[in-house]
Amino acid sequence: MCNLYSQTKSQDAMRHLFDDVLEGDEQLEDVIGNLPPLTGIWPDYAAPIIKAKSDGGWQLSTARWGMPTPAKFLEGKRTDSGVTNIRNVASPHWRRWLGVKHRCLVPFTSFSELDQRPGAPRNSPVWFALDEDRPLAFFAGLQTKWTSVRKLKEGEVTADLFGFLTCPPNGEVRPVHPRAMPVILTRPEEWRQWLTAPTEDALKLQRPLDDGMLKIVAEGLREDAT
Questions:
Q1: Taking Cα atoms as reference points, which of 220, 33, 194 lies closest to residue 124?
Q2: In which element (H, E) is residue 105 found?
Q3: pLDDT at residue number 42
Q4: Contact status, residue 222 vs residue 125, Cβ threshold 8 Å
């Protein structure tokens, strides 16, 4: 599963990338404040997402990476650190968050998978991007507000959370990680479909990126700062 990614472009770049999604008098409200480049985003880190506003339009905000864990996996545990990657959308646990209200886009410039190729070093990240320049794209995400104990030292908190969908790997990812890759959306029509379409239509986007659309851009690094 993808448990490490980067987002190194500016907020202005994220806002302008979303321009082609806007229709009519829609606007994208940025409530993040000053966001530095995020060269290594790990589970439970705060990262940017784009989601619908309750009064219409869209909002660029931050949330913690990791949706609520299914109750059966929390038995005997004192904390819920969250689920970062979501594959089985038929599960009742996830169905509650599949509607338009809870969908989001997760901006990224690169993501990593642990190298499972023969002879690879143990726990060695391989970084993928659309090309060497690391252009922005989006993961198909889900988001919600949830009250739980994420860390014992924090106690119970109410936080905005997100995770993103996964699917079978494409030709570039499969040799490195044979089980899954994030659902990646690269075109404005896909971004709007994910954010606004009925659930059945939106879930048609849960499929691998076409072969040839990803490149390995770094290996063995815990951050992708390029």
A1: 220
A2: strand 103-108
A3: 98
A4: yes
Report whether pLDDT(195) > 90.
Answer: yes
Q: For residues 80 and 163, what is the distance between their CA atoms, to the nearest angstrom?
A: 14
Give the strand pairing for 58-65 and 28-30.
parallel
> Cα torsion at 215, 14, 31, 85 (round to 10°)?
-30
Q: Which amino acid is at 41?
A: I
Residue given tokens 């994910």 in the structure block: 194
pLDDT at res. 25: 92
- Phi, psi of 163, rounded to the nearest 5 degrees: -150, 175
With H, G, I as helix, E, B as strand and everything else as coil, classify residue 202: helix
pLDDT at 225: 85
Other residues' Cβ atoms within 10 Å of the Cβ of residue 90: 9
* pTM to 2 decimal places: 0.97
Q: pLDDT tens across 44-63, in order?
A: 999 999 999 988 899 999 99
DSSP for 163-182, please give it: EEEEE---TTTTTT-SS-EE
Strands 46-52 and 137-149: what pairing?
Answer: unpaired
The DSSP code for 203 is G
> 3-class DSSP state for residue 189?
helix
Beta bridge partners of 216: 128
